[in-house]
Amino acid sequence: MTTARDIMHGEARCIGADESLTDAARMMRDLGVGALPICGADDRLGGIITDRDIVIHCLAEGKDPAKVCAGDLGQGKPFYVGADADLDTVLDQMISHRVMRMPVIDNKRLVGMISEADLARNLPGEKIGALVEAIKSGPADQR
């Protein structure tokens, strides 16, 4: 059985909840990613911030990204899967929450991230099609 741990990107980097959106944008640029997990002082997952969040919820509202903290945008309870979850469980969670990226947790700590592309490399096309359709049909601010 293939698990989340088998396909995840294991070197997920967090942005601190107290770090600025400018810092988050630079980290995204340097890492070549469009989303970052937000971690608190306890190194536990507090949310996820995307490049789209920075544009829509900061820049478009006239806020200064140097003065807004990543934790200010990472509201609500974060979605995640356990490292030993099978791929169907990962897919079901991503479809259910209509997200393109899913944090992977082991022993209450972030150990990696799974993207839509990671699943596409490991699951049949019709299953990935269901994820794409769910994301496409969901509210824009959930992507």
Short account of what is shown:
The chain has 143 residues and is α/β, with parallel strands linked by helices.
Blueprint (SSEs and pairs):
Elements: H1 4-7, E1 15-16, H2 21-31, E2 35-39, E3 45-50, H3 51-57, H4 70-73, E4 81-82, H5 87-97, E5 101-106, E6 109-115, H6 116-120, H7 125-137
Parallel strand pairs: 1-2, 4-5
Antiparallel strand pairs: 2-3, 5-6
Helix pairs in contact: 5-7
Q: Keywords, please?
A:
single chain, 143 residues, alpha/beta, 3-stranded mixed beta sheet, 7 helices, 20% strand, globular
Report how far apart the termini are.
28 Å
Strand tally, please?
6
Rg, please?
15 Å
Q: How many DSSP H or I helices? A: 7
**Strand content bin:** 15-25%
The H/E string reads HEHEEHHEHEEHH
Shape annotation = globular
Low-confidence stretches: none
Major sheet details = 3 strands, mixed
Strand order, main sheet: write it out: 1-2-3
Overall pLDDT score: 88
Q: Which class best fits the helix and strand makeup? A: alpha/beta
* Helix content estimate: 25-40%
